[in-house]
Known about the structure:
By secondary structure, this protein is an alpha/beta fold. The protein has helices spanning 4-7, 22-34, 53-60, 71-76, 79-84, 96-104, 110-117, 130-134, 136-147, 173-188, 221-232, 260-269, 313-318, 338-349, 389-405, and strands spanning 11-16, 38-43, 64-65, 88-94, 122-126, 151-152, 156-159, 165-169, 196-201, 206-207, 213-214, 236-241, 252-256, 275-278, 285-287, 307-309, 327-334, 353-358, 370-371, 373-377, 380-383, 387-388.
Amino acid sequence: MADHAILAGKRVLLVIAGGIAAYKSLELIRRLRERGVTVRAVLTEAGARFVTPLSVQALTEDTVYRDLWSLTDESEMGHIRLSREADLLVVAPATANLLARMAAGMADDLAATVLLATDKPVLVAPAMNVRMWQHAATQANMALLESRGVRRIGPNDGVMACNEYGPGRMAEPMEIVEAIAGVFAAESHRPLAGRRAIVTSGPTHEPIDPVRYIANRSSGKQGHAIAAALAALGAEVTLVSGPTRLPDPAGCRVAHIETAREMLAACEAALPADIAVCAAAVADWRVDGAGDRKLKKDGGAPPALALTENPDILATLSRPGERRPALVVGFAAETGDVLAYATAKRARKGCDWIVANDVSPGTGTFGGSDNTVHLIRADGVESWPTMPKDAVATRLAEAVAEYFTGK
Ligand code: PMT
């Protein structure tokens, strides 16, 4: 049930692009206006082939904005002002074409220009043929937009206007209304505003020679999700990331590093901070004296690698002192006796909380999408059910917020 209190008085700029689902956007305008939302609409040229400007104008009780080059519109209501005078931009339907133009940063019509020029939150409701949605190009465009902070509702599965079945149907108007209420609720819930956080994520690569390195299976999914979740609650986040294939999470400053020593230096450069979360799988050892010449296979005995210990970033950040973050959270990756080893690790490293996870073969913790964790604090252990890493991150970020606000 959409929250009327959250929506009343809000201003939505609705971009209607050219898809058969555009007719549902007329219903969306009505549902939003019933809830006290002011709706202003931008209709693309293709959108106007599916719904008439007159219908949109009648329902919004406002001018329909269509032309980037209209001197009247530009002088009376330029594209910057259209965005400035909105609290949220909603693109419904978001066609494959418009998503591609948004991802490429194009500004070739009024809709794309407003979307490029805005600093307001953007919610898209994709709608297209199932194969267009599943095409690698559309999936890559959507992933890129989401990594930049664009929110998405749908598409839903179902029979489409083209008589095909699958994901591609635009979300229903009331689902979009609820997603809009969700965006406004999230925007007003920023308990970590004014707090600085450091998050480590991913593996480190420790060189053996200029072309080889020692690494591990960490994908960065868990650490990146934690950085995004803390940022969503208003924290100013520095993510210190080892080499991963993930896009930088929206709203975070990201320091890309390779080795443990570089990770430590980047963390120290990000101090002072209120919060540190060490989710990276840092190599405990590096190769002593890794040179700048490639090791040669010369038919003799294989070279022996001498290892030397890396600095411990979590233990360093946890060390008492003026610059110690108020809350330091470590992770413990264990393959047996998870709680006992993790509890001992919390004491040994000196951090406040430790998040224990089982990384035994078959759990999929390294690299997978889900995680099963136990949050160990001085006063006890909370065991969480298996959930997606994003959900672990959100729950951990909420626990961090509770620590600071006492609520
Ligand atoms: O990246 P994903 O594929 O999503 O996988 C997530 C994860 C399994 C990597 C993550 O959930 C996790 O458990 N991270 C910690 C991995 C690890 O190295 O654990 P550890 O028990 O060896 O280290 C304990 C703690 O010390 C960790 O917070 C680690 O970041 C930190 N550490 C370890 C060594 C070191 N030199 N410096 C450190 O800061």
